[in-house]
Design a protein that fits this description.
315 residues, mainly alpha, 3-stranded antiparallel beta sheet, two-stranded antiparallel sheet
């Protein structure tokens, strides 16, 4: 940490361009410390700073100047994206304040704006629609993407987690599937750590999954991914397969990630606790689950109110 701070101080002064400071800050503090996907987001934020405020110096980074930068960014992005941009810049700016490059924190009391969100696509299927989809899958003796769709629908795993599944991850006698790694499908392949510590988990699987997958993997290498071959895998390839099934079934078209939402939604509607759903999905906290499925939780609360009223009326 001391070496990193020294590297930053060597080239720091109040007349330095903010975009240059931010680029250097990312290189020193974020490179090799965060996931590649997160690093890509920081680099994208840098490109926007360079585009929107190419001549902004550290000494001129006032609250007004920072707010103007956020406002300009918000013209092209929704509010949540602008908020993410703000959080990524704020880390670097607070370090600059600590180092004496900026007198006061210009991010204080920043107002987050943004374009009106686009109409959201349907993210999940109801129980009947999911049943229709699973019945339409072509589950052959050889592995195909329909097997992958079935696994995600039944477990709620993330795309990268499901790609990394090996036969050894199944414990058919205990009806569990271990999640301890992901597959680097965006890069050069190979195993990567899970998204967070909470993502390392054992998922209970139903007897239908046990019967089908125990037969599928019995002659496969125990330590090789079931769904990864010699060619590069793209998220869009699997989504195209799922889209064709949805259209053929006459149900809403969703993505593979939408199957994860479907899985969680059906469990919540069935009365499974938020804590249990959070553990099953590998969320870092119940807060993530509550935010993601707020609309469903609100519907369930409305049902609870009706139930309370009916119960009290019958007393």
């Amino acid at each position: 940490m001391i070496e990193k701070e020294a590297l930053m101080r060597n080239d720091m002064n109040s007349k330095q361009l903010f975009c240059d400071y931010y680029r250097q800050w990312i290189e020193v503090y974020k490179k090799d410390a965060i996931r590649d996907s997160t690093m890509a987001k920081y680099n994208m934020s840098y490109k926007w700073v360079e585009k929107l405020a190419p001549e902004l110096t550290m000494e001129n980074l006032t609250r007004t100047a920072y707010q103007q930068l956020l406002n300009d960014y918000a013209k092209e992005h929704e509010r949540q994206t602008t908020l993410d941009f703000h959080h990524q810049l704020k880390g670097a700016i607070l370090d600059a304040v600590d180092d004496g490059l900026i007198e006061r924190d210009p991010t204080r009391k920043a107002i987050i704006k943004g374009k009106t969100p686009r109409a959201k696509k349907i993210k999940y299927l109801n129980q009947f629609e999911l049943h229709t989809l699973i019945a339409h899958l072509d589950i052959k003796e050889e592995v195909n993407w329909d097997w992958f769709i079935l696994l995600v629908a039944k477990t709620g795993m993330r795309f990268s987690e499901a790609l990394a599944v090996t036969p050894a991850d199944f414990d058919f006698s205990r009806q569990t599937l271990s999640v301890s790694k992901t597959w680097d499908y965006k890069g050069d392949g190979g195993y990567l750590p899970t998204k967070n510590k909470s993502s390392v988990r054992k998922i209970q699987i139903d007897w239908q999954v046990v019967v089908k997958f125990s037969e599928l993997v019995k002659n496969m290498p125990q330590d090789k991914p079931i769904f990864v071959g010699d060619t590069k895998i793209y998220n869009s390839t699997v989504n195209d397969v799922l889209t064709r099934h949805c259209k053929a079934c006459g149900i809403p078209v969703i993505s593979i990630h939408g199957l994860r939402h479907t899985h969680a939604s059906l469990l919540l509607f069935a009365g499974v606790s938020i804590a249990s759903v959070a553990r099953r999905l590998g969320h870092a906290s119940m807060t993530t689950t509550q935010k993601t499925y707020l609309h469903i939780i609100q519907e369930l609360e409305n049902k609870d109110v009706d139930l309370v009223m009916r119960t009290l009326s019958g007393l």
